[in-house]
Amino acid sequence: MARIDTDYLIVGAGAAGLAFADALIAASDADVVMVDRRHGPGGHWNDAYPFVRLHQPSAFYGVNSRILGGNSIDRAGPNAGFYQRATAAEICDYYQRVLEEHLLTSGQVRFFGMSDWLDEGPAGCRLVSRLTGAVTTVRVRRRIVDARYLETSIPATHTPSFDVEPGARLIPVNDLVRLTGAASGYTVIGGGKTAMDACIWLLDSGVPPEVIRWIRPRDAWLLDRAFQQPLELVAWLIEGVSLYLEAAAQAEDVSDLFDRLEACGQLVRLDPAVEPTMYRCATVSQAELGSLRRIENVVRLGRVVHIAADRIVLEQGSIPTDRGQVHVDCSAAGLRLAPGRPAFHAGRITLQQIRTCQPAFNAALVGYVEATRHEDAEKNRLCPPNPYPDTALDWIPATCIAQRAQALWLADTDLSAWTEGARLNAARGIGDHLTDPRMTSALTRMFANAEPAVAKLETLQAQNQQAGRAARRPS
Ligand SMILES: Cc1cc2nc3c(=O)[nH]c(=O)nc-3n(C[C@H](O)[C@H](O)[C@H](O)COP(=O)(O)OP(=O)(O)OC[C@H]3O[C@@H](n4cnc5c(N)ncnc54)[C@H](O)[C@@H]3O)c2cc1C
After folding, report:
1. Residue 97, exposed/middle/buried by CB under 10 A (0-12, 13-18, 19+)?
2. With a 6 A CB cut-off, is 154 part of the ligand 1 pocket?
3. Is the CB of 369 under 6 A from ligand 1?
4. How much is the pTM?
């Protein structure tokens, strides 16, 4: 049995593990071992559906030390006017280059692909090759970094939560491009961004909207891509932040908050007649929204329980189907929902969300803090866990925690300089746009509302928790 020593063992070489490793070695001489079950780096992107693109601009995705794409704005096509968004193939190629040309050549990082990490607690840990069964025992001098705590579940690799009878045709979204003949119809299963991508791809590929049926157990609040733009368009992003802070500061209650967020364009929904109950940071453009609204056959009867050859049983009813119908599985959960825990604890680091919906930035921040601070209490103060949102109401604590963390970073001269230099920070470069009236009015609105917004969100959150406790109390 081989034995190795290292400072850090990073479990998971997805976006989070790689962004952490990159930031850690940029700020220290630490020795690092990375392990992943998959053959190469990039995590779930290796199994993504072929027509997926990043939902956000490439300009602030990946790792800090290397640009993804060309930092340019698309001039034509469905993303015209916005920063480029990488395809899955581009993302996988990027991560392979990050590993080979940067991490491995640094001499500080070793990579074990096709290997399972077996956690054996204080006794140590082992890496087991999926190809040979060879076991490597790892002695970790500093920390084990759990970069799979929020591991992403995707249709290509998950097991659906419902049964499918022989005779019914269910495919993961990846297999849409492999169809060889026309279907009698397409039933898209899922309410998240993957289902939206599947619907848009079908429509763009010439499938008439009336041939698409969309099983949407929950409707989601969505983010408008126009407000997620960095670099030359960062004034749009800051304007968005200032608008949602103003909405929060002025909100009279939860319902008024969501009305205001929608009125100022910071949350959008598919169907104006249906109040969304989900919020998972899915991002769309107005053009995509218009396209998706062409699908009128939306089934809202809860989750699918069973698909037979002639009917689909859902939690709240059933609908007919047929053998010619292609059922498209988009029901995987995406980023795992897991409770917040201290990021730094004993010999562990658990990578989690801090700033909402920025997993790569958050992981890099934790890497930098680990390399530059000494006490765990201080590291945890700077990196508060912020559980990934799922329900609409989760917008409130998620925004609150992110705002408080932002204030801590700004107050810390060193961290403030690091965030300003970090390419993964979508909001960097504000100072370069102070002559832009859009930026100056956004900053005025933001500074006027930041503290009242956090105070109001804390009040609303306390009211929600109280109402939740009262509802659970036995009568
Ligand atoms: C379609 C889609 C589009 C998205 N678009 C965006 C976007 O635009 N912007 C954005 O910020 N986020 C986006 N996301 C969210 C995305 O999940 C994150 O950006 C990021 O890729 C998650 O990376 P991760 O490292 O946390 O998880 P993963 O990619 O799941 O990586 C975890 C890795 O851990 C490995 N692993 C787990 N357990 C073990 C073990 N015991 N031993 C060895 N290895 C193990 C797994 O094999 C896996 O490779 C998108 C997600 C999806 C599904």
Report:
1. middle
2. yes
3. no
4. 0.96
